[in-house]
Amino acid sequence: MNHLHSAAQQAVTGRIRSLAEKLTRDINRIYRYYDTDFKPEWVPLYSFLLSEGTSALSELIKETGYSRLSGWRIMAEMTRNGIIEKFRDDKDRRKWKLRISPKGLQSAERIRLPEKDIQQAIGEMMQHCLHNISASIGEWESLLEEQAFFDRVLDQRKKRETQPVTITDYEPKYRKAFRDLNEEWISGLFKMEKADYLALDNPESHILDKGGHILVALLDDEPVGVCALIRMQDKPYDFELAKMAVAPKAQGKNIGWQLGQAIIEKAVMVKAKSIYLESNTKLRPAISLYRKLGFTEITGQPSPYERCDIQMELTLQP
Q: What domains can be seen in the chain, in order of their start residue?
């Protein structure tokens, strides 16, 4: 037990699973001891229907916390055992609803005593606890509602796999990398367009000389990522974030995130109030990155690119 406490951070899911298994095993024994063939896992669905009268399965799943798969399985078991029954919704005959059957109503008395004794036992146990387990579970539920555990684990993986890169300002020696990295991903999914050639063939005159900026990500002194801020002259935005590209061999190392943060910091340094960008919804990882950086979707701006089907903005200052 001391080992479990010392390793709680690593073993919390195992401890929760073990506790749930112990409680589930004993509650099943309790129901058998009370001589009822009613399954404990049916109780949330049964209790909700007993309170509400009728419900659609989707509402039941939402209110009782079942997963969709578990909800369908439990509904099928209870229907086969005659505890609940399906019927057509009077307002929409295409939809099915659920209610407790006449046989199922007789089960209310059979589960009343075991449920009463179970609740009493839990109440007494909570009186002996130094910490409020209900409040703790509520905190965990709230945290997992904000961000799923799956996504939290992936965030940790990204942090672990993130390689420190050097973000530096553009120099003429990076001209080829700026073009090659962008041309590689554009040509792989779309086609190079006139606006691409203007920026990639003439980064100094088209971007830098007009008040823009280009950043380069270096990994072991090799350019593996690039991103530009292009000064916008005739639109309600100060800069366009454009020409972000990461070498395929360097993808998955959080370099895009580091470049994105650095280019936004550059915009803040020059007192920009807003940034605009264009992309394509095929580029799901890129769109996800932009959203994490704080960009939100807009519409209505003219674009020189045929491939553009999504536009986004980031407000830096009011």
A: 34-146 (1.10.10.10), 166-315 (3.40.630.30)
Residue 161: per-residue pLDDT: 67
| pLDDT above 90: residue 70 | no
pLDDT at 5: 44
Contact by Cβ (8 Å): 184, 145: no
Q: Tens digit of pLDDT for each residue in 11-40?
A: 577 777 777 788 888 888 888 887 777 888
Provide the CA 130 distance to its chain's centre, in angstroms: 34
- What is the 3 state secondary structure string of the chain? CHHHHHCHHHHHHHHHHHHHHHHHHHHHHHHHHCCCCCCHHHHHHHHHHHHHCEECHHHHHHHHCCCHHHHHHHHHHHHHCCCEEEEECCCCCCCEEEEECHHHHCHHHHHHHHHHHHHHHHHHHHHCCCCCHHHHHHHHHHHHHHCCHHHHHHHHHHHHHCCCCEEEECCHHHHHHHHHHHHHHHHHHCCCCHHHHHHHHCHHHHCHHHCCEEEEEEECCEEEEEEEEEECCCCCCCEEEEEEEECHHHCCCCHHHHHHHHHHHHHHHCCCCEEEEEECCCCHHHHHHHHHHCCEEECCCCCCCCCCCEEEEEECCC
Distance of CA 297 to the CA centre of its chain: 18
Give the C-alpha separation, 264 to 272, whole Å: 9
Whether the model pTM is above 0.85: no
Decide if pLDDT at 133 tops 80: no
Q: What is the pLDDT of residue 169?
A: 96
